[in-house]
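anyone seen this seq b4? input:
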Amino acid sequence: MGDILATEADLLGMIKEYLKFEDFEETVHSFDKECKKKGKLVSKPQGSTLRDSKTRVIQKDLLSSFDDGDHKVFFELWTDNIPSEVKDTDTEAQSLESYLHIHFTIFPLRRHPGRHDRAEFEERISHFKQYLETRGAALSQTTKFLPYYALPFVPNPTIHPSFKDLFQDSWIPQLREKLEQFLSVALKPSNTPRLLHLYVSFIETSNASPHKVEVIQQLQLQLVESDRRIASFVRKFSKMKADYQSLIGITAELVDSLEATVSGKMISPEYLQSVFVRLFSSQMRQSVVQSTDFTRPGTASSMLRASIAPQRPKDVPMLPSLDYEKLKKDLVEGPDRLRSLLLQALCWRLTRSLPGEQRDTVLQAYISNDLLERYSTKQKTVLHLIRSKNEIVRQYVARLINAFASLAEGRVYLSQIPILLKLLTEALRTEEKDSLARENVLVALQKLSLRRSQQTAMIADDLIGWLVDELQDSDCLSDCTLQYSAALFMNLCLRTKGKGMCAENAKHVLKVLTDLLGHENHEIRPYVNGALYSILCIPSVRQEAKEMSVEEILRCYSKEENPDLNRQFEFIIKLLNSDLDTEDLLQPQPRELSGESLLTTEYLGIMTNMAKAKRKSTPLTQPSADEPLQRPVTPSSNRHCESDRAVPFVQPQVYTALQLAQ
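predicted toks r here
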């Protein structure tokens, strides 16, 4: 309620500010009188005060960096805060900017005459040259500034007669005074009322031309493509670095071997075989490397030469471009038969394209032409076909969405469509259980759950409750539905809100999960274990699990001959029996040391410190493969979910926390 009153007072204050600006004196008087009569608060206009305060801070920072000779900070503030029309057209501003560049260039010479840092001065000279070649080029035609163009080429400007004025004691104070006068005018805030400013901003945003929107979209696509290429180059660089380090070690051994032969020592064939196996292991399959006889003369050298021989690039045919506007029109307005054929063809174009450049091009074409109409405000779009009365149309829309969700850039595109999740979860709840449309929707949602923003929306839509009810009747589900449902449930349980929703109905959730452990489809067990491990972090769920004898159930299943699964069960049982920090009655006082900070501040030992330093110097290790899954994943392709039932080119994906923030 307090926020609403504050907002109302602020709005009334803006109205009063605007009326005063337009000199509606009688209206202002009546406005004040009626507000007092109704008990309405009217805030004082703070816009100009805030702007004045911000202006003073900027001006102070500019003058401070001028005094300190910090050219980087100064020109960053100058660029961001001095209006372009002033910098680019006002001759006085251009003249002042030139003198400022001169000031920062010679600053080291003035600060430490005769013993300045030569490297720092050279760096500033380089910046000054860059300025002279760009923004300062126009001033080369003026007699006043022409001598300063020789500054970068004079060995010692302090003794050169052309620059003696620059080193007079009065030069800096005079320049600073000019700067202050300029800033007081250039940074003078506008007196435009906030209400008028908001209105103008809204109009400008509303009237953004389609061309501008298209340019923004293209820039977004270019950014995504650049990120993809950067990631690819990073992977290639990491592999090259690893190969280089391995090669250095092998080269050193071969040099040692050559030195040994010079001194008359023999090199055994077995030793050569082991060296060559290491040399080629990163380029060939292990089985091929192990079966190759490298001791036969010429074998290793021939393979080395072949490995660096240039390969003829394969020509990848590009698919012809399409008229996407006509496509979208026929998809929305055409008969169901044509819609189904078009959706099938679009899905095939993506799923049957060659991996790599061809598939990337197809996906980029779909996204750049906004095939699913993410920016559309129309009542009926391509995505709304998921509500079609025709089952075939609904099925192929779901397949197309699933195909998008199978690729990282496709998931980025889908996540930008506000209505998508609502349509998908609606279809999930209304389609028949054995429907192919429902299955593809479920698979698409599972892949979208790799993205954090989509997880949040799914949890808010109570998808966890739906999944628990779905998994309760696991014997009636297809293998594909069962596997993707379990994986989706685990991904959502990894979030704090997801765990909280499970805790609200802990007994039912634990019953469903423990029943799933006995299902004949063992491929779902990693997801079930991951979900159990996640929700058992909550004390109330652990308590419920103990009352249900979950530990005994896990030990019953751990008798099977599966050591990896048994170790996962042991991790879960260990968590189940933990009661860490559940009864911490002692609470630290404000500013009182406690816990690890108390130990490491007052009682840090030598060995502890050394271990800590050692850990910092080593890269972070990945969680053990024996532990239950603790990060969002998507199932790998299998025979039950292949072909058009689910996109065949989806590979197993495990995402780190950094990748999930994308």
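The two ends are 36 Å apart (CA to CA). The mean pLDDT is 78. kinda curious what u guys think
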